[in-house]
Amino acid sequence: MDRQGTVTFANPEALRIMGWRDWKLSDDESEEAPEVLGFKASIESVTQSALTAETESGEVVRVNETAFKHQEGHSIPVSYVSSPIFEGSEFSGTVTLFQDITLRKEMEKTLVRSETMSALGGMVAGVAGVAGVAGVAGVAGVAGVAGVAHEVNTPIGVSVTSASYLESQTKGLMQIVADNKLSRSALDNYLDLCKESTAIILSNLQRAEQMIKSFKQIAADQASEQKSRFNLKAYIDDVIRTLRPELKKNQLHIEIVCPDDIELESYPGALSQVITNLIMNSLVHGFSQNGAGNLRFEVMDEDKIVRIIYRDDGKGIAQEHLEDVFAPFFTTRRGKGSSGLGLHISHNLIYTVLKGTISVSSKLNEGVQFVLNIPKSPE
Beta partners for 87? Predict the structure, then answer.
């Protein structure tokens, strides 16, 4: 492309991938020809990002992902890298190389969905599972499932105990009534007992109900790709609630600072996956086993976007690894249960689904910080 973004050359493979007959003007065509306009529109996203970045800095645009429009109207996910062209010292345009990553995206989607649904399905059902892909699907495995089962069973167990005690006291009162020995004090004591026991039963069942709703909601969102309206703080709370057992097991304290009134018209399933992956990345990489630590989400309302700053105070990331944290299959724990896909998938979800951005900063032994800028209503 030249410096105005006009395509000056496209090879046959580029045309084949996008289904276009040609990108060149014939003698009887103009800039307004449907074929030319369609081809330009199909690569508009990379045109703008490449030209903006290269005009400002003259640097190569790192590997990024977007979607091009096929001639038949459907979207094609692509990975691309753009390099500036100079004539002497003057910037004259860009060269962009791209590849169709439809198959890879489908494989990633299948992996995320199967692992996440397996983990969350096991949590809701209370059955034991097998270890999932660390950092990709969030909490999985026997320990995670047992922890969630314990979280739900505790309030239910308290409710059963209270109900059983209330039942026995009711039978005792019935016997007193049958024997014509009911006194005012006995009735008052029983009514006090009823008030206390029903309050305990109700609060614990409500707690269990909220947990189960959170598990089911997150599982449903992960299975759906539908756009919906939701309260951001409440949704983050729901996601965190599903991860509480793992956080407790590792003695990790989490803090959420978020205005109560932020509403998003976005994709909650993608957002829950990103939040889960960030937390699991901290859990796996940031802290030693059963080590204590702190995690923090700070959300700021920036008009049309929300800025989410996520921090942990763990081990941090070495400077030489910072540029690779979002690369597929990059991990410093190869052979120890980490696949290197968690942050890569999060990066892709933010850019391609949520239409936002993510950046990372860190120093060894000083924790890590991720900054997410997400539109309230992605186009």
Answer: 90
Q: What is the dihedral of CA 103, 279, 80, 225, to 10 degrees?
A: 50
**Predicted TM-score (pTM) above 0.85:** no
Count CA within 13 A, CB hemisphere, residue 306: 25
CA 337 remoteness from chain centre: 20
| Sequence-ordered alpha helix ranges (H) in the chain | 12-18, 34-42, 44-57, 102-125, 141-178, 184-223, 232-249, 268-281, 342-348
Q: Which of 63, 58, 61 is closest to 50 using CA atoms?
A: 61
Instruction: Report helix, strand or coil for 312.
Output: strand
Residue 332 has, within 13 A of its CA and on its CB side, a CA count of: 16
In the block, tokens 């199909």 appear at 42
pLDDT digits (tens, 9 = 90+) for 94-136: 888 888 888 777 776 666 555 555 444 444 444 333 333 333 3
Q: Helix (H, G, I), strand (E, B), or coil: what is residue 29?
A: coil
- Euclidean distance between CA atoms 75 and 116, whole angstroms: 26
Q: Return d(Cα 146, Cα 239) in angstroms, integer.
A: 18
